[in-house]
Amino acid sequence: MSDIRDLIHTLAIGNEDLAFFSALPSVQPYLSNTSHYQTIPFISRHDRGQKHDQFFKKTINTHDTVPRVLTFMRRPDITSNHEDRSPEPHFTVFAQLESGINGWEETAHGGVLATLFDEALGLCAEVYRAFTNGFKETGLLYTATLEVTYRAPVLTPSVIQIQTWVKRIEGRKWFLEAKILDQEGAVRAEARSLYVSQRAGL
Q1: Is 24:161 a contact under the CB 8 Å cutoff?
Q2: What's the CA gap between 24 and 142, in Å, rounded?
Q3: 3-state DSSP call for residue 108?
Q4: What's this model's pTM, rounded to 2 decimal places?
Q5: Tens digits of per-residue pLDDT, 177-200?
Q6: How far apart are the first and last CA of the chain?
Q7: Residues of the domain holding 117
Q8: Is 99 helix (H, G, I), strand (E, B) or coil?
Q9: What Rg value do the Cα atoms of the chain yield, rounded?
């Protein structure tokens, strides 16, 4: 992946996405002047002339699948070292879900939710690594395991919030957790994942 710092500073955040989400009560605290977060582009949705990320750039980037996404990272001055133990998520994604991702009637397919988890968790790890002091290696991070627990159906149409955390890092192993919340703040699904960074020299 290109340097994530450059991508965050150069890729645009859609004005329509920002206008849509800023009207929602669950999003407004992230946009306030006292927020610990800053808005960043959801990198996987941007066409950068490469063949990867087609699922997020095209397949579920339509008016009847996931038409809008807004992403926040915890500000670098808040997350500055490996000893961070704040309960606030490191990386948050708000996503508008429509009926084109349904499995059961008016219910998002569990496989799509798992994919949203995986992408949000992967971006969380990349952003955390890019903006937290002390990381030298820049090898790719690969999903080794992803465990999803579905607590309740995720209805469509709706807006969900995906909260993600880097829990700990042990050598090349990254352990992360995430939650999907509805607009009332109820947990609909949870995930635990293990990412493994590429060996040096490969």
Answers
A1: no
A2: 34
A3: strand
A4: 0.92
A5: 999 999 999 999 999 999 999 876
A6: 15
A7: 4-197
A8: helix
A9: 16
